[in-house]
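Notes from the pairing session

We agreed to fold both candidates in a single pass and log them together. This is the raw record for the first candidate, unedited. Please don't reformat it; downstream parsing expects exactly this layout.

Candidate A
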Amino acid sequence: ARLTAPEVKEREIETMAWCRNGLRGAGGKLHPTLYSLSLLILVSTTTQSDPLAIPSIPIIRVLLTPSSVPQGATPTFFCEVAGIPVPVISTWLKDGMPLSSYSDWRIRLASGKTILQIRQVSSQDAGVYRCLAEAGGLNLSSSARLRIIVPPVIHNTTNATAVVGGNATLTCQTRNHLFLRWWFNGSLVDYLPRFGTTGHGEQLTVKDVHKADHGWYVCQALNERFSVEERVHLFVLIPPQVISGPQKTFVPVSWTVTFPCVGSGQPNPSSVWLHDGEVIELENRPNIVIYSDHITIANVTLEDSGTYHCDLVSDAGAATSKGAALQVISENFYYCSGCNDM
């Protein structure tokens, strides 16, 4: 096919060249198998009152910087257009639906709709925004995606209970976060040897639990702009241990006897007293009073003689003291104050 340059006055032309795909042909010659359908006319730069206006391909581009903004911010979109004739912006779309400042007070269009602002954005404003324009019967569009950064939400936590030497798992379920951190007594613990996380950090496992691990842990959820925290409790159980128990005792009839039963543990253990292997029922022994750390037997009789011991009981386990004999001496016997040491 033969291409012919448009007829223009000679004085208006400074240079004429044939181009293919934007590349100028050498020496102004056109090879029929290499170049086609593109004529470039360069207008003279000499001063003239009416320079030759050459149509150009219209361009449209939407700019959004940054593309991620925090909740409550006011992002600004710029719709850049260029070309001859200059494209005219017709409207903006959000996820395919038209935007209007009349239906939403937060939307602002300015500078011939080249600027789109959305005030006080929320998570519902995230999506793809598209600018539509028209130039010489040609429809143009360009788009940008808006991401809204919202605060993380911690929606479920689970405390844990473990016996010393066992394992425990604390739970902190979240959303809208990038990563989680676990703190204890002001220090990060999720990287320490006995601690480990699973489930994207939502579970903290404590191995070989120590007494010092007892207390409140802080689960911290973070993203690019926000940080939220929640406390999770680890209750460490320590099995009961008898520190001081009853001792062998001789007393005369009608005297009062006190046997100690002092222990430790977490939680504090309760005491159960036994007489000759049977749990003492207070309703049947009105002369006995049981306290948290001792038992008192008033006005002892011969029937109160026997072996006494205490059990310390809690959710962490139980411990039993050594048995201690109580010998009640008849009034016919002479009481020796040092007999208990014999």
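Candidate B (folded immediately after A)
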Amino acid sequence: EYVNIDGGWWAGVGTGHAVRNASGYLEYVNIDGGWWAGVGTGHAVRNASGYLEYDKKKFPNGMNALSEYIHKRSLKFGMYTDAGKHFCNRDQNASEGHEMKDAELFASWDADYVKVDACGTTEKPEVLMSKWRNALNATGRPMVFSNCLNGCTFVPDEWKPWCANYSNLWRTCEDINATWVSVMTNLDSIVGKGCYGAPDRWNNPDMLEVGNGNLTDVESRAHFSLWCVTSSPLIAGNDLRNMSDVVKSILTNKAAIAINQEYAGNAGDRLFKDGPIEVWHKPLLRNEHAVVLLNRGDAASVTITVPFSKFNISEGVKCCVGDVWTSMIETMKSNVTRHVGPHDAAFLRIAACP
């Protein structure tokens, strides 16, 4: 039995204007699994009208009161359900066959975000996600639609373009954990998918593990750099009440977040790979470029040199190369070079010098 309340942050949801805090984030408080009445009994409770009941012991004042409490603090309210016949804890009576009822329920609680998981499904993912898209739209309330593992992963031939048409964000991989191997595995799930990322539509390689487990500060910084250059959702998975100054400085780096939010077309993607060396690139406004030079290797530092021509920068153009983490700016011509340690990444913003 569990209820997770996670702090999460996303780009704007098509409103034309989004109010942000000083760090550049929109703030969501999302209720995860375990909020329904009957949790852990094997059968979630629905009332005579077919709507799910919430657990009154865990939420004695009701969901509307919780939603109001969150909204009064200029935060957004997120809810969770499962697209299948049962929830991930095996409680029956989940959302399959009840899509419209559950969408109406979340709208009546003034939810701003709905995560739909994929345990116990019996219909095809495309069918279920189409039903959920239509049900959420029919409520008339704007809600971010998060597809969690209903199709769309990097399992060969599973990901299809419909993923980007039916939801605002779609999980591309299994759950992340706080290890370098897991971070790299989830990163691999979005290779070649940058063309589908755009405002209101995001590849989602899962939440951030910055500051968690055995990830070093260097690995956490590289992890955050890669999620930013790929315009992935920045969902903090650490305890926000108890984090080091280094972790806080990573999560609140304004230059990194600005790159995550900025679009001049598509999201970032891997440009090329050579053994443990990878170069990730995102086009920015004003013909600028965000670049991550990644060393996935375990032991040796490497020197990574990339010609500006790889970023479609004309030969001979003098460029100002800014380091996102140190704020240092260098003038370079023809190429960019960085020495990168194991499990580390250089995060750069490149622009033609004035």
